[in-house]
Amino acid sequence: MDSRQLCMSFFIFFFLVLAKEGRAQGADRIFDIRKFGAIGDGKSDSSKAIQDAFASACNAAGGRSRIVVPLGTFVVKSAVFNGPCKGWIEFSVGGIIKALAGPVNDDGWVVFRHIDGLAITGNGKFDGLGQSAWNFNNCKKNPNCRDLPTSIQLEFIENSVVSGISSLNSKYFHIKILQSNSITIDGVGITAPENSPNADGIHISNSQNIRILNSIISTGDDCVSMGAGSTNILVYNVTCGPGHGISIGSLGKYDNEADVNGITVDKCTLSGTSNGLRIKTWPSDVQMTAYNITFNDVVMDNTYNPIIIDQQYCSSKGCDQSRSSSVQIKDVWFKNIRGTSKSQSAVNIQCSRRFPCYDINFSNINLLYGGPDGKTKKELEEKFCVGVMALIEKLKSQSLPNNFNLEN
């Protein structure tokens, strides 16, 4: 790990050690949601009880406050936890927090806002019951649709940790991070079937210094997606699949989007995903830049479209494919990418006609076509070589700058 990763790992360790020592010394204030009326029978609505427990913990002066969700299944219609708080907050989940069935149209299901010093910990689960609502997701056909709720939403959160928990079957995104700084997500499990619509594992936008570490994500959309304003993001040792891979974008869809800068994806595995490492931008007049991006040491296991830059991305009605993207993509490295591609086009670069890609680099790319029709190894390698030559010719035809580098 580099120095940034080591610093963040130390932060997680220090935070959790403090919490453990505090409990051993009786320093933590414990707020068991059952004492506020929560019933873990899988039927009773515990929304008010869990919010009352948080309010009491948040208003406790100084020290650390620990909210406990014990064993049991606690139904929560929606819960919004607003800070700022007077001390550190630990939200410890040992049981199951379960959503209501059906297409609840709230912005978020469990929402944390304006908290500096939050730890969401435990081996418990957030069950979004997404299977009861996915049929109501019509956003690809209806540009005026209303999104289903995100399972766990972090807004204006700083210096915080999410560790150990699981998110199951979210109605929309599993975890969304907005307008936040210095958050580490470590060792979480995210699970939904590959046909779950818009069920991104972790989505980040307008946030900086975010670390996603040592996690397993299986879902129906991007395992990790980084939108506009994502700065200094590390995705490290994440296993993804099924899903749509690890994506930056889509960018340029909305006015006044902030630049994307300092993205590192390192030591990850993508297995059976419909895309691999992807940068996608919308065909529009919105000008912004995505730069200083590194994808390194990534294993592809039977992955469609392992490496993609798509500057004509259009996932729903309401975009004009005749327009060209105004997003400048530059200073990008794909290094040490290896494994098997389920598509013959292992590297697919479609840059903007208006703002051509600049300083895109490939080093030590070793992707073999593992087609479905039982080709011999020699035939597979020949097909892949043909695909690489076609890519090079395509890059030449796009009149890209000379510093579009292919090494090894």
From TrEMBL:
Signal peptide: 1-24
Places the protein is found: Secreted, Cell wall
Any one GO MF annotation of this record: polygalacturonase activity
GO biological process, one term: carbohydrate metabolic process
Family the entry assigns: Belongs to the glycosyl hydrolase 28 family.
PANTHER family reported in the protein's UniProt record: PTHR31375
Name the record gives this protein: Uncharacterized protein
